[in-house]
Amino acid sequence: MHKSLFKIPNIRLFIIFKVLFNSRFYYPVFTILFLDFGLTIAQFSILNAVWAGTIVLSEVPSGALADIFGRKKLLVFSSSVMMVEVGIISFMPGMNSFIVFMVFLVNRVLSGLAEAAASGADEALAYDSLKADGQEEQWGKVLEILAKYQSIGFIIAMSAGAAIYDPVLMTRIVKFFGADMELNQEITMRFPLYLTFILAIFAFLTTIQMQEVKPEDKSSRQGQNTDIKQAFRLTFKAGAWILKTPFVLSVFLFGMVFDGVVRMIVTLSSQYYRMIDIPESLFGIIGSLVAMLGLVIPKIARSMAENRKPSHGLFVTAILTITGLFSMNFFWPYAGLIPALITFSTMYFTGFFVSFYINKETSSKQRATVLSFKGLAYNLSYGILGILYALLLKAEKQGHAVSNALENKVFIDTFIWFPGLFTLLFFILVIVYWIWLKDR
Known about the structure:
Elements: H1 9-22, H2 30-36, H3 41-69, H4 71-90, H5 97-118, H6 121-132, H7 139-165, H8 167-176, H9 185-188, H10 191-207, H11 228-243, H12 246-267, H13 269-275, H14 283-293, H15 297-307, H16 310-328, H17 337-361, H18 367-397, H19 404-414, H20 417-436
């Protein structure tokens, strides 16, 4: 009988931090928010590429720094940067489009830095805290609990974020409480940002309460100067270990394919909802439905991970992804939501399996660095796919006058690219690893 995992302070704080850091109230209106600030879809695509590029460049060095200087310091830095990146767009006054774009550019760079600093360091601190308590075999349970609370956080953020973004609804609410005022979109579009800024403050307060846990194997730190050179030496060492460990490398590569394609779909989801005739007022409710999947799927994924071969979970996730992506291309009015939910569910399976197997195979002394490679791989995939899709859209619109009707048509015509590319990449990897890792 294991004592409650919540009695381990770092586990409790890790879960709180992850919920606060990821439950952002502007997520259900993410694309629309950028556009309502005066940005174009092209600028939106560029900003997303910058965000992914920032993570790619800073992900692994940040993980190495976490392994050397301490995971807590990186998490405190991450939450501090989150306050700045959300704050600058929350309180930005009305400006011309160029300045708005530059402010959002800074926001995306800072957001990428915050994401990179937290990625790897958070799981490494939690896993080693669990290991120090002699309960590392309970990591799957921690991931399950985390997913459950993150889902609750997402449900609240998605529902409230979409609701407070709606100026008509917010005007009715303030009038109900006796205030005679009319709220417009320029005012209400900042409400989700204000709430996210408050979460950033609490995330910072959470990280400063964490306690550093040193890896059991301290030999790598003895007699070494904790400087930037050592960070890069550890980075190259971890990278070489991944390349020389076929199973871990396969987990990374399959994770890149699944996460890159599906995350692109998630990013474009609001446009997809419009194409299947779902009103914007329901976007938050749909986001809550997606989050509710996190209450169920991690338990299923944990059972598969602990009782079946990794290949079992891989093919279950692949079948769901292919089914969902191809079915979304029919753009069924309203009913198109079903294949979208199937597709989005694979994010939970992918996230659980990748974290479970990488932590299981990695030693404590380089855990944060190796986990940072996961973030690098994910965002490299996402960034490349984003650029390729932007080029595809540009080619499709070549020679045509820009209009909403054209944007919608091009979106529908190019959507088949996602299931086609995913299927191609997946089966290439299967052919390679079927021979290499037959027994797993």
